[in-house]
Each structure stands twice: as C-alpha cells, then as structure tokens.
Amino acid sequence: QVQLVESGGGLVQAGGSLTLSCAVSGGTSRINAIDWYRQAPGKQRESVATINNFDRTNYADSVKGRFTISRVNGWNTVYLQMNSLKPEDTAVYYCKTSVWIPTKVDYWGQGTQVTVSS
After folding, report:
1. Alpha-carbon distance 118 to 113, whole Å?
2. Bridge partners of 2?
3. Inter-residue contact 69 to 18 (CB < 8 Å)
4. 4, 38, 62, 89: which has the fewest C-beta neighbours closer than 10 Å?
5. What share of the chain is helix, strand, coil (3-state, %, to 5)?
6. How far apart are CA 68 and CA 100, in angstroms?
7. Coil, strand, or helix at residue 24?
8. pLDDT (tens digit per residue) in 40-59
9. Is 89 left (phi over 0), alpha (psi -120 to 50) or beta?
10. What is the pLDDT of residue 100?
C-alpha cells in the first residue's frame, strides 16, 4: 500500500513561486514513476509533470520552462517547483503513482490547493 501526502499549496500572486511536496511511504520499491496532476474547477484532471526511476522528466507544454519536478532519497519525497505562476495555474494539485501487483493499481494523494491571483 502506497501513501502519498501533498503539501505546500497556498495563495500566491501571479509571477510568484511555490514548491509542492509529495511525501511517499509504503511500497516504494514498486514505484517506477510519480506524476503531478492538477484539476481546475470545471475542468478535467491533467498531467503536469512526471519523473521516473532514471530521473527522466516530462512536462505538459503549458508548464515547460516554469515547473521542475525532482525527487530526494529515492521515492521518499517528490517536489514540484513552480515558478512564474499564472492565474491559469490555479488548481488542486495531486501526486499519483501506479504499481503493478500484478495488475495496475493507481494511488493518489488528497491534493493541495494552489491559487494564483492576478
């Protein structure tokens, strides 16, 4: 059983920065990648950034050059550094991972709210 707990959200002005954290516990040896997703009001949840076992990263076009995903101590903590924030970045941000045991099981955190004021 993998547990994911996000923190670090808050209210920030446009152009500001925030760093989100995803604390990971339980079953980390089965993790190959962790994603950050976000969901704005009235919109579908979307993938924002991914980091895998080889520290390869991938970003949505809307955040490239502004957001950076990283990890510390294996899968203990995954960060999302967000710079040059825009009002359209306002959303609930979630971290997510999938493990195969042997079928695929998705684990999500509870989410953290990010609000960017104009």
Report:
1. 16
2. none
3. no
4. 62
5. 5, 55, 40
6. 27
7. strand
8. 999 999 999 999 999 999 99
9. alpha
10. 86
